[in-house]
Amino acid sequence: LTLGTAIINVTEPVVQVKLNVTQRVLQSSRVLVLTTCRPGAAEDTACTAARATFVDSYLTGLGIEHTVTTDEAGFRKALRSGRYNVYWLSGGAEKLKGSLAEEVREAVFRGDSLIMDGVHDERNKDLDEVVGVLHRGKLPTADQLITVAGPVFTPGVLNTIGKPEKVQLAGGTQQAGYGTITGYPALVSNDYGLGKGWIATFDLV
Questions:
Q1: DSSP the chain
Q2: pTM: predicted TM-score of the whole model, two decimal places
Q3: Per-residue pLDDT of the chain (205 residues; tens, 9 = 90+)
Q4: Measured between alpha carbons, how far is 174 from 98 in angstroms, rounded to an integer?
Q5: Which of 40, 46, 101, 157 could form a disulfide linkage to 126, CB 3.0–4.6 angstroms apart?
Q6: How far apart are CA 98 and CA 102, in angstroms?
Q7: 41-78 burial, b for 16+ CB within 10 Å, e for fewer?
């Protein structure tokens, strides 16, 4: 039984949308830090906590976006988020193991940056080529003065604390040397793929 009929016309409204979009590449650094204190198996948790607090405060004061981690698990999770473009490995006991060092190396090759300082660890040997050095042990004298020659940094003389690492250049460029020991750099920069590698052979923090 048909009670009635009607013709219905459905018309899609014309909406003019203006997209004012500008594409740009952000130049800001987003730093992911892994910092610990003591070399060896036993970590000094109080020292690490104080060190992490200092690094966090320092980078905050510079206005640099960052995350500070104190263990490999936290560093791995943040690294794989894809948020960061600068990785800073600093200090003593906690180092990258397994494939994690390789992940950092490949990230730098694609255009990110790596900063290393403190105690060298054989587990991180995959990162030596990123910073352009070969490790040869430790220098014999602690608390060395370093001479910064430029041109990357302002020339001058700075104090360091502890026994520095003994490295030889393997593709990297010396940016600073030790005042009383020649032939072993204190600061080294390196171009690696599309990225940059840096190493301070002393405790930078």
A1: -----------PPP---------------EEEEEE---SSSS--HHHHHHHHHHHHHHHHHTT-EEEEESSHHHHHHHHTTT--SEEEEEESS----TTHHHHHHHHHHTT-EEEEEE---GGGGGGHHHHTEEEEEE-S-SS-EEEE--SSS--EEEE--SPPEEEEESS-EEEEEESS--SSEEEEEEEETTEEEEEESS---
A2: 0.82
A3: 888 888 888 887 777 766 676 665 555 899 999 999 876 556 788 999 999 999 999 999 999 999 999 999 999 999 999 999 999 999 876 678 779 999 999 999 999 999 999 888 777 788 999 999 999 989 988 999 999 987 788 899 999 988 899 999 999 999 999 977 778 899 999 999 999 999 999 999 9
A4: 29
A5: 101
A6: 8
A7: eebeeeebeebbeebeeebeeeeeebbbbbebeebbeb
Structure tokens at 28: 């800001």
